[in-house]
Amino acid sequence: MTALTTPRGPRPSLLTVAASRTRLELLQFFRERDAVVFIFAYPIIMLAIFATVFGQGGAT
Length: 60
What we know:
Mean pLDDT: 89
Structural class: mainly alpha
Low-confidence stretches: none
Number of helices: 2
Shape: rod-shaped
Largest sheet: none
Strand content: under 5%
Order of helices and strands: HH
Radius of gyration: 25 Å
């Protein structure tokens, strides 16, 4: 018994695979609105809190 195999086409380049994966990951990330808001708003909120607490005010 002999198994016949069909030849496959050429493999995609590493750059093509990386671009496809990056596009997929970004689409999935931006679909989750909570994650997007948290990622961009959290550092700004923390900066405001630390600036208020540790700011160089006139009181010593």
